[in-house]
Amino acid sequence: MFRKYILKPAVWHRKTLEFEWDTESGEVRGPGADLVISMAASAVKEGSVTGHPYPTSYDITDPLHNISEMAVLLGQDWILSEDLASAYPAEEDTDTAIFAGEDGIEHDISKQILH
């Protein structure tokens, strides 16, 4: 089933992107279809794109069938619709706090409460 998208630009050099997309068939149609298809093909060829939070690299294998990959692809330059925004991959919590003891051994204290 096709869903219609009208995405406002998030950057100055893009215009409103309007297209219809069927995630099951991977078909894209409408005024912005050629751009979406071209961006998807380039991303697949590269194998990844950089997205938010920068500089996070996301693997791209089939954005015309995968809403999370499409969200990353379009989220670089456009304000995402609610369904695309909710499909954007969650940021992994990679914050780590390391403490080096007097003995020189490093300890991960990220999960500890310090008083």
Summarize the structure.
This protein is of the alpha+beta class. The protein is built from three helices and seven strands. Helices cover 25% and strands 23% of the residues.
Describe what you observe in this structure.
The chain has 115 residues and is α+β, with helices and mostly antiparallel strands. It is 25% helix and 23% strand. Strands 1-2-3 form a three-stranded antiparallel β-sheet, with helices on one face. Strands 4-5 form a two-stranded antiparallel sheet. Strands 6-7 form a two-stranded antiparallel ribbon. A hairpin with a 6-residue loop joins strand 2 and strand 3 (28-29).
Write the layout of secondary structure elements.
Layout: E1 3-7, E2 17-21, E3 28-29, H1 33-46, E4 48-51, E5 56-59, H2 67-75, H3 82-87, E6 98-100, E7 106-108
Antiparallel strand pairs: 1-2, 2-3, 4-5, 6-7
> Radius of gyration, Cα only, in angstroms?
19 Å
Unreliable spans: none
Question: How does the major sheet shape up?
Answer: 3 strands, antiparallel
Number of domains: 1
> In whole angstroms, how far apart are the ends?
55 Å
Backbone shape: elongated
Tell me the number of strands: 7
Helix fraction by DSSP (H/I, runs of at least 4):
25-40%
Strand content: 15-25%
Biggest sheet, spatial arrangement of strands: 1-2-3
Structural class: alpha+beta
The count of helical stretches stands at 3
Q: Name the helix and strand elements from N-terminus to C-terminus, one letter apiece.
A: EEEHEEHHEE
Indicate the mean pLDDT.
Answer: 88
